[in-house]
Write a structure and sequence with these properties.
The chain is mostly helical and 248 residues long. Helix 5 runs parallel beside helix 9 and helix 5 packs parallel to helix 11. The longest helix has 32 residues. The protein is globular and about 55 Å long.
């Protein structure tokens, strides 16, 4: 599409492809969990998300994973990909050759590798600790990439970041699925998806817009460090909940 129409027109057409699907999602009837005996609802309201959060407010693992997914998307997300030309320029690969393409593909390749590892070996149990640990390592990896001046090191860091990103998102969603009450499972998975993927739209502000003021290297590093602080706070929040249950 980009080759046929050019960069600007290609991006616009690519975005417009999703318009019919978005309209359809907005008007399609929502029936809920009729198989579980729940009453059907024809209208989906924005306040439903807050109602679901209130229903699971005492379930710290689920709440932690929903906030983790949203925070990761809000502060970092995939906005650094849009700034890859400037990162590539600073690494000396600003031309549209194999070296530049490898930078773009390294993160995706890491995600594919991480998927095979998670699917083939049960080395990462679906626990809050595993998700938090992978998220912390992801923050540190993205910070290291932000300041990297070495092209080979940047490739490795992007590859590792892709694997870690897939790992903690997958584990977080698994925890939501396993911990959710049957009657709320579908709504909680939807809430997690909305948080984990919907908030990526705003990562362009935390990295792109701020990057225009302080530079993309510092904006990515700062966003990653803020996310690291949030992640550590979430781990403390989840750990305190577990300790309270053990004491109770």
């Amino acid at each position: 599409m980009l080759l046929w129409l050019g960069a600007s027109a290609g991006l616009v057409v690519n975005a417009l492809i999703y318009v019919p699907f978005t309209i359809w999602l907005a008007i399609v009837p929502y029936t809920g969990h009729t198989r579980e005996g729940m009453p059907a609802r024809r209208v989906l309201r924005w306040r439903d998300a807050f109602d679901v959060i209130r229903d699971i407010a005492d379930n710290r693992p689920i709440l932690t994973m929903i906030v983790l997914g949203g925070a990761a998307s809000l502060f970092v997300g995939n906005a650094f990909q849009a700034n890859m030309p400037e990162f590539a320029h600073d690494l000396g690969t600003e031309r549209a050759d194999f070296a530049y393409s490898a930078l773009l593909a390294a993160n995706a390749a890491g995600s594919v590798f991480g998927g095979f590892v998670l699917d083939g070996k049960a080395r990462l149990p679906p626990t809050v600790k595993s998700a938090i640990s992978c998220a912390i390592l992801w923050c540190l990896t993205m910070t290291a990439f932000a300041f990297s001046k070495s092209y080979p090191l940047s490739l490795v860091l992007l590859f590792v970041a892709g694997a870690l990103n897939l790992a903690f998102y997958s584990i977080a969603q698994t925890i939501v699925q396993l911990e959710a009450p049957v009657a709320l499972r579908g709504r909680l998975i939807g809430l997690f998806s909305m948080s984990a993927y919907g908030l990526r739209a705003f990562s362009g502000l935390t990295i792109g817009v701020v990057g225009g003021l302080i530079g993309i290297h510092w904006s990515l590093a700062l966003s990653s460090m803020i996310l690291l602080a949030v992640t550590v706070a979430l781990f403390t929040f989840a750990a305190q909940g577990r300790s309270s249950e053990e004491l109770g």
